[in-house]
Amino acid sequence: MIHETIAHTSQMPRKEGPMNLVVGATGILGTEICRLLAERDGEVRALVRETSSPDKIARLRSFDAELVRGDLKDASSLKAACRGVTAVITTASSTLSRQAGDSIESVDRDGQLALIDAAAAASVERFILISVAELAVDSPLQAAKRSVEDRLRRSGMTFTILQPTCFAEVWLSPALGFDLAQARARIYGDGINKTSWVSFRDVAQIAVASLDNSEATNATFELGGPEALSPLEVVRLAERMTGTTFEVEHVPEETLRAQYAAATNSLERSFAGLLLSVAAGDVIDMHKTLAKFPGQRLRSVHEYFEGLGIRI
Predict the structure, then answer these.
(1) How far apart, in Å, do the first and last CA atoms of the chain sit?
(2) What pTM was computed for the model?
(3) Does residue 23 contact residue 47 with C-beta atoms inside 8 Å?
(4) Which residue(s) pair with 130 in the sheet?
(5) Element (H, E) at 223
(6) Parallel, antiparallel, or unpaired: how do β-strands 184-188 and 178-179 relate?
């Protein structure tokens, strides 16, 4: 059980500096943001749920994060979490959640809208939203993200909206059919359309850098990696690095469109929409964005594979 609350931790010695609230702190992106904020020697407040994984909670504790219980579906908990906060960074989404009651509507739309309202009411100075890049087909997820972006732009708070394309660590992983260890790759569509696969670590760095970067004031950025590779090019790269011929499974675009049409709820339709978007590709030119974030280096797919222990 999580014992920390705002009232309890406010009695403890804290670091000097602005308080940053991270929502979605137990996800891979949110946890990395908390780590980077801690490295900057700033105060970190992490919104967690009673059902959050003990291992993830322990990871946040290792950053000396102040843990506060709350849920995007509980507006009163958001008001409490935003009290005394200078900046909010939110990465939360229901797309990978298995929690009861989580949905595109309750989390990605209504929950994020409630968070914006709570932050504005608490006089939060800066709000950084991790959204999603433009998708190839309409979906409840994209509609929710755009409605939240619109509310944020009208909130009166200084904002930064980040719209990353496909995370390499998610889409090029066994969970979605790309298994380096087994030399297997699932390709959505024909596999020839290029995507600027981006590392969640780079998105985290840009999110944290946006806190005090004037170039990020009231700005929206699409985020991608340093190069665009088609899924088949990614497979060839993996084959060169591992010295192994991959078994490739294609999921035809017609199958993906049938899945999209047959979806019975918003999460199913959104996931099908994401698969269609991966099949369509998403090339993002990062030159102008990188000029506004000097010193930011983007990790390549090659470096991602090296991080998994693969060497040529």
Answers:
(1) 45
(2) 0.93
(3) yes
(4) 162
(5) strand 219-223
(6) antiparallel
Residues 141, 147: contact at Cβ < 8 Å?
no
Nearest CA among 286, 165, 164, 161 for reference residue 220: 161
In this structure, are strands 158-164 and 219-223 parallel, antiparallel, or unpaired? parallel
Closest to 26 measured CA to CA, from 63, 65, 52: 52
Q: Which amino acid is at 179?
A: D
β-bridge partners, 21: 45, 88
| Residue from 122, 110, 32 nearest 75 by CA | 110
- Burial of residue 304 (CB within 10 Å: 0-12, 13-18, 19+) is buried
**How far is 247 from 73, CA to CA, in rounded Å?**
43
DSSP state of 46: E
- Which residues of the chain are under the pLDDT cut of 50? 1-13
pLDDT attached to residue 3:
39
Helix (H, G, I), strand (E, B) or coil at 30: helix
CA distance 174 to 196: 19
Diameter over CA atoms, the chain: 59
DSSP per-residue codes, 183-216: TEEEEETTS-S-B--B-HHHHHHHHHHGGG-GGG
CA nearest neighbour of 116 among 162, 167, 141, 81 = 81
